[in-house]
Amino acid sequence: MSEEMDVIQHLLEIEKAASEILVQAQADADRKIAETKAKADGEFKEKFSAYMDELDRSADSRRKDVRDRLDSELATFKSSLDSTAKDVDGFNSLFEQLING
């Protein structure tokens, strides 16, 4: 009977060791997953930030181009208005006709 108890005790020790190995393996796997996720998240944030910075620079450049074009067209329009002869007497005459019927 003692031999059977020794065998059972030995099997229980093997099962306990296997259980400890399994727990340690799970802990290692969890740690590796967490490290890999943190690394992937960091790389994503870095690349996303770089992409967004490029989009911002592009948008700023486009806004400046549009603003410059608008300023140029507005200056051309104002110059055109300034160079147009004004018929103040004709305007006043028309105004008087419209008001007085």
Provide a short characterization of the protein structure.
This protein has 101 residues and is an all-alpha fold. It has helices at 2-83, 88-100. The longest helix has 82 residues, at 2-83.
How would you characterize the overall build of this protein?
With 101 residues, this protein is mainly alpha-helical. Helices cover 94% and strands 0% of the residues. The protein has 2 helices and no strands. The protein is rod-shaped, with a radius of gyration of 42 Å. It starts with a helix and ends with a helix.
Describe how the helices and strands are arranged.
Elements: H1 2-83, H2 88-100
Query: What is the strand tally?
Result: 0
Strand content: under 5%
**Biggest sheet details:** none
Global outline: rod-shaped
Estimate the mean pLDDT confidence.
Answer: 95
Supply the number of helical segments. Answer: 2
Radius of gyration: 42 Å
Low-confidence stretches: none
Please tag this protein with its features:
mainly alpha; 0% strand
